[in-house]
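A reminder before we start the practical. When you read a complex entry, don't treat the lines as separate problems. The point of joint prediction is that each chain is placed relative to the others, so the output describes one connected object in space. Small molecules and nucleic acid strands, if listed, are placed in the same frame. In the example below there are three entries. Take a minute to note the order of the lines before looking further.
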Amino acid sequence: MVRITSSRQEELLEVQEVTKRFSIGRRSLWDRITRKRQKYVQAVGGATFIVEAGETLVVLGESGSGKTTLGRLIVGLEKADSGRIALSGDAVLPVREHRTQRGRLQMVFQDPGSSLDPFMKVRDVVAEPLTRSGISSGARTEKVVQAIDSVGLDRSVLDRRASELSGGQKQRVSVARAIVSSPEVIVLDEPTSSIDVSIQAQVLNMLVGLQQRNHYAYVLITHDPNVASFMADNIAVMYLGKIVEQGPAAKVLLHPRHPYTQALLSSTPRLHERSIPEAIKGEPPSLINLPPGCPYAPRCPYAIKVCGEREPETYEIEGLAVSCYIYDKDLKSQFGAAP
Amino acid sequence: MEVLRVEGLTVDYGVGGGTVHALRDVSLSIQEGEIVGVVGESGSGKSTLALAVSRLLRSPPAVQRGGSITFRGSEISQMQPSEIDRLRGTGIFMVFQDPFLSLNPLMKVKDQIAEVIAVRTKRSSSPYDRSSAEGEAVAHLKTVRIGDAEDIAERYPHQISGGQIQRVMLAMALAARPQLLVADEPTTALDVTTQAQILAVLKEIVGTTKMGVLYVTHDLAVAGVICDRMAVLYGGMVQEAGPTDKILFEPKHPYTVGLMNSIPSKTKKEGPLTAIRGSFNPEGLGGICSFAPRCPLVREECRRGIPAQNPVDGRVVRCINYGENYEQ
Amino acid sequence: MGVLGVVRQIASRPAPLLGLLIVAAFYGWSLVEGLLQLVGSLTHNTALGWALLQSNPFTPSTSNSLLPPSFSHLMGTDDLGRDIWTRVLYAAPTDALVSAVVVGGGILVGSLIGIPAGYIGGAVEEVNMRFTDLFLAFPALILAVAIEATFGRQLVYAILALIIVWWPSYARLFRAEALRIKNLRFIDAALLSGLRDRSIMAKHMIPSSLNTMVSYATIDLGNSILVYSILCFLGLGIPAPAPEWGSMTSLGLYYFPQWWWYSLLPGVVITVVVVGAALLGDGLRDVLSGGA
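Here is the predicted structure of the whole assembly.
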């Protein structure tokens, strides 16, 4: 199994073979008695990657790819079924057991509307991560003000209620809350998807600036290849809970190897394009009835028999880690047109 | 044949004691077989425009203060609700953003399309035959490239995906045979791969039915891909409008330029994105260029009045930098 | 939106404004009169209780018995010649107190049971909600009779009986709110901040729930007055000669229809207050759900 490893020993986030499934449907007592089979959604099926301090890994995927679950696993909002998540070597615990990890892992959520308690004042929202930090209230206020300054908000916003702010302002407050505890890793789940494009640019610039100054490791989850191209140092492409392709941003975006990545990138309308992008056939998948074999096989134009039977290994090709039999030296010849 | 003409449309909303100028002097036209895009961010008034054209604005709180909306030669903005009802569906058909709010959850897909056919046949005084209507429904589902059309026809809305629902809406549009389709962010809630499929289907059916389409979106790239002409809206006013080619490749208005620069197209290593400063504030919009507070090319002339639309190189631009003309 | 903003919005529409005026007048008067009565009884100067009223509500005057409404007796007099409007005003604080305590008590107990049920779920939810169902089944009147038969006819026992019957609806409301709120992202953020579950419930669940509940609780004030009035009507309130709206309506029935004002007018007062609370509550719901 190929792993992307880091040569430097900086503070890093290490995720190894992480899986997570959710049970669906409520089982009544009768269901238990009749031993009705519990249905599961395999949200994440074995994610592996490393992120270094000051670096951004973009997890690129559409809805249903498991990317949000992956983000929640990293910070401890969900507990992994198997695999390992470690922050500088310490295993990441579920959020209620955090203790020494408290404040080192933070998250910025997609929906500005539900990210902040609408009845709280902004200063209390931003101060929340410091409530159990043991620092004095004076020091706390100072950190809160610093955080608000560094996200480009005017200090007058501190005494306003969260519900009075615009979407862009709410996202900035979300970021301020995430950085106030001086975290090491920040997971950003579609941080700009719900705000206007013109504000998105400001927020992305701000995030880059913050990272340059404070060396946060970002795990940025998005479905937008444009955001990925701007923000990413490395990209992991997710499909149906699996990372199908991974590597340096430029390589993934300019010379994608996995058929899904190619289809995803070519389907995205580009500014200045006048023709409708090529579409992948079929429907976006559901995580409930996962077919055996490669998750993309049902929609893949190159799929051969083995693709639907067994999951491919991860192959390394020109600095990219790709889960596709096309790159298996033994099976290469079975594929017709090379993608 | 001109399907839609909006002239000088001005709509206000009375909200909590104040007034919001949602639309100000908006004009556009749509010919048959043409897809006209309206691009804007939140607060631009684009949804108000879609609702106004569809005659779905709630009045109060919305009030039309001026202008006209002409559908196939008839002025519809002052029409009685009973007359508007006759236009709905077969004259003007709407597709909205949230697919899960569009269909009746208690009716099968084929029944909902058949219902549209029933309305259409009744209005044209033709006889309605149930089984041929169901057959037509399935045919339309096939035209919009829904997989397993017969199977989907028998399902209920909660049993199909968002992308499939939007396709069902397009099938309904085929069944209704409208002259005008108003689409308000129809693909925003969908995955990019599904979006590409829906855009392709839409373009196809416009080609065959020659219906006019008003396509409202916040996504410049999507508008560029599907629209023949477009209008860029900011602060309730059309800032730039013209053929898509012109606007995409030689944008003139500072807002259009800023919007394009906001779409990331380079890496962070090459420097920050050229963002438009500030954010949209509906207050203080009276009597000056609505973009002035954020414009990198702002001059004092920008605050002397509301700039008029100047014809420049095959399109119109509402900007003092292209001619010092003001609205009266 | 702020309390002032809400009040302004309420005041801009006729029906909610009417409700607001009625409710404000009712509780405002009850507060003043209630304080006077309280101070009066503590200082053994009971006359304070009718210092603001035109006459002593207890003093009988047989010569004035059963007089119809007039300028000197706005609601006429009862069989003992006592001015009814005076007695209505004197009795108002009782209903105000009952409504405030019953609804307040319902919210207090309901939140303690409902919020953990919704937020924690699992066994806690099962236990709490089945316990709630048990109490939902109690009929208010029978319980009140039982308690008062055991402990005596005092205001506090009537209130107790009402609280016992009242809290289950609030428990359900709070549980539903907790279920809704716990899926909002700021709860995740609170968890990441290291907040313990009980802090999350107190700090985040309660304000949001109360906001949703304010309109229901306002209408409920009227409901509780109505139920309490019915209790009094059936003879389960404070014994005579203390004036009570429900009791007055009940006693007055003996004199209906010839001396219609005795029963009808106190009943009208009850109706006005209950409808006022409903109008205000409705208005609040529109304002709070439409706004921020």
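Discuss with your neighbour: DSSP finds ten helices and no strands in chain C. What might explain this?
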